[in-house]
Amino acid sequence: MKNHNKIINGWFSEICPMWPGISLSLEIKEVLYSKKSKFQQIDMFQTKNHGKMLVLDEIIQLTESDEFAYQEMLAHVPLFAHPNPEDILVIGGGDGGILREAGRHDCVKTIDFCEIDEDVIKVSKEFLPDLACGFDDPRVNIHITDGSAFVLKQKNKYDVIIVDSSDPIGPGEALFERPFYEGLKKALRKNGVIATQGESFFLHKECVTNLVKITKELFPVQAYSYFLVPTYPGGHIGICLGSLGPELKKPCRGISHSLQTQLKYYTPEIHEASFVMPYFARKMFEAI
Ligand code: SPD
Fold this sequence. Notes:
Blueprint: E1 7-8, E2 11-14, E3 24-36, E4 41-47, E5 52-56, E6 59-63, H1 67-81, E7 87-91, H2 97-102, E8 110-115, H3 118-127, H4 129-132, E9 140-144, H5 147-152, E10 158-163, H6 178-187, E11 188-197, H7 205-218, E12 221-228, E13 236-243, H8 257-260, H9 268-273, H10 279-286
Parallel strand pairs: 7-8, 7-10, 8-9, 10-11
Antiparallel strand pairs: 1-2, 2-3, 3-4, 4-5, 5-6, 11-13, 12-13
Helix pairs in contact: 6-7
This protein binds spermidine.
């Protein structure tokens, strides 16, 4: 195996000040790609047991073994909460996984996609074809630019906006701040829905509290959903949702048998269950 300064005795360990004192390690078979882009260090590893793994600035973005859980929930929860999503915006997620999932909805007519780092798209097209197939959808229009700046120029345009960000350190930082959420709200049409990567209520209390506070203040309907992803910190992750109309906690459209059988995690029951909080988290959110 090629030498890599983050692989020790064949293992990669994810160490981050955002979740101090806890770390997930994966056994690595091969370093497939390792280069610094204009924005961040991009690594693609072949793990021993979890397929390929995309790592940005030393933080795990996905593994092939469980990426479906995250992409399906972040895409289908907001899309099924909306009665008729036709025009949507996806910010971040240069791997293409959210595009793949959003494209499964026949009612969707256009998907604007905004990614700051073109190299993440290139590397994903080379090594993650099962995710990057999302880019083959003719409804997708790619914008290589900063999502926080892009959104400020859009008014009254989208039915659903999905933000597939990395963590709030590095290029994703602005995507966790209030001006960005104000921009998201203005970019929505009547009855629009947003869903953003919402971290962990166990490990990132301050960040989650802040996201919930911002969305509660800006949107008439707000909710937080969480679900299992074994290779994210703590084995789970949340999404923070805001809506200008639709109730979020129940799907408002049925799922066809043909779509359900393409999925591995999302079901209408999981949609509803993902909003049921452990007692400490419920109290934490109610206090905001
Ligand atoms: N702690 C890492 C959170 C990463 C979320 N975004 C992943 C991108 C996958 N499409």
